Predict the 3D structure of the following.
Amino acid sequence: MKNDTTGDATDDSTVAMVPGSGDPTRALATVVDAAELAVVVLGIDGSVLHANPLGARLFQISAGAPGVRSDAIAVVLDQVPKQLTGGPEGGTWMGEVSLGSTLERPSIHAVTVHAHHDAAHTAGGYLAILADDVTDERERVARLVHQLEHDPTTGLLNRTAAIARIGDALDGEPDGTTAVLLIDVDRLADVNDALGHDTGDRLLASTARRLSTAVRPDDLVARIGGDEFVVFCRGLDDPPAAMELADRIRRSLTGRLTIQQLELDVSVSIGVAIAGEADGSDEPGDARHTTEPGTLQQTSQRHDGDSRGRRLALELISRADTAVHAAKHGGRGRTAQFSERLGSQARVRTELSSALSRALRDAQLEVEYQPIFSAVSEMAEAAEALLRWNHPTRGRVEAGEFIPIAEETGIIVPIGDWVLQQACATTRRWIDSGVVGARFSVHVNVSRLQLAGPAFVNRVVDLLREHRLRPRQIVLEVREASLVDDDSDEVVRSVRALRRVGVRVAIDNFGTGSHALSLMTDIGADVLKLDGTLALPNGASETDTRVVRALVLLAHALNMEVVAERVTGLEQLRRLRAAGCDLVQGHLVGSPAAPDDLVVQMEL
């Protein structure tokens, strides 16, 4: 309810005679009765002196008892300050009053109450009530506010409204353990691409309904992004309770779902951030007294233009987002809790991601080559191109640090194309100088994003033509995981197209997944590169040896060569030879080196 009171601004002289009327009171009553406002005039004792038709209907004044004050009038007068109705000064009050408890149809009225008392505060005073029905206007405003605050696809709060409400809650008093859960619908983009956005929207709406039933009654649920939902929880017993809730939500949202007669396997990844915790091992308590570096602190202190609660809400969502990325990196369909370690890794990823965009432009990248030798003749038959990054301040950055970031951001596509160009140019130079023979090949790692590109196969063919190379002189290495992901159809099509034009394809890290045999028989390849864990390292059992021997026999039956990676010892090399491996790669036989230095290694 809003209200305003002002001093008395009228006296008896404000009632003017209507021209042509002999009775000013009757003339005034005629005007009041014709007004589009509900008007009721009360005597100083509270009795009804006059009511126009709208006033009689609104305030339920009976024609049989015109002087009796109704309950609806009492509702209005209860809102008016007592000094206005009972004091000697009189005055005016304005506000909005809900009359839903007294009428069949709930309504909101903008009400003005004017109190006038004569100088002696006798029965000559009166109280005028003017009410204008603003219900429709307020309903229109409410609908507009609802549209502004809610996501049309799911009916949940949107990001802006969610952050505002979470911020308000965090500005209040702490209430047990407080957490933000960020829920990411796995592979929603694939559903949109393959089945259309209508199906994707139906999946989101279904997820919203199931999520709303999985949380506690007082938890806030919102959709804050394309495939992201947030749950804000207060009053949890302890941090483990937040993880238990997250796991319960994950299980309730995981499974097979039928949408428009289509069956979808749905899973979600969830990140959890807890207010007042720097990492997963902090003791719970009043977050306002937490002073560990990196912790989030709750406070009721507000600042100009913003609140600490809103900033904390944004930080909690950011931390939950970091945790959900860790969950997805672990294989999707998982739950992860934010920790300072994850936060540090996220900061490094952000820094490296920004620096990667400059690395290619500023010539910070280079390609080294590691030789691949025949296990029998011990002659160099190939080399693998390995990307290196010489960061201006960090020095040499390991590929394991920046390649995943490059793939996440998509910058792996231009970087991968540059590596392929370098490999083709180097191969041509080696051939022209007589360092290698015509059967020598260079292996180049290609990412799933490159292979999924519609122009990739043509790009490879163009580079081979530009550098006058035969297709078999370039071997494209594809990680096993890239061939078995749910979105691997485009990758597999590219692999088959490359093989049709004569480019050889190697399955890298073979044996790390559960689809190894189907890759060999269904998708096909020219080379298998055994993962280091399969390459009979020290401590390998006789059973391990028999498994490798069986894989080699199967590969040979399918006309595939077998390369053993990470060969580091002579005994390991002996076992691999005995198992029938064709080629070996590792520090025992040759380390990565610049192109000219590699020539020296291969000539030894």
Residues 151-338 form a domain with the Alpha-Beta Plaits fold (CATH 3.30.70.270). Residues 455 and 494 are 10 Å apart (CA to CA).
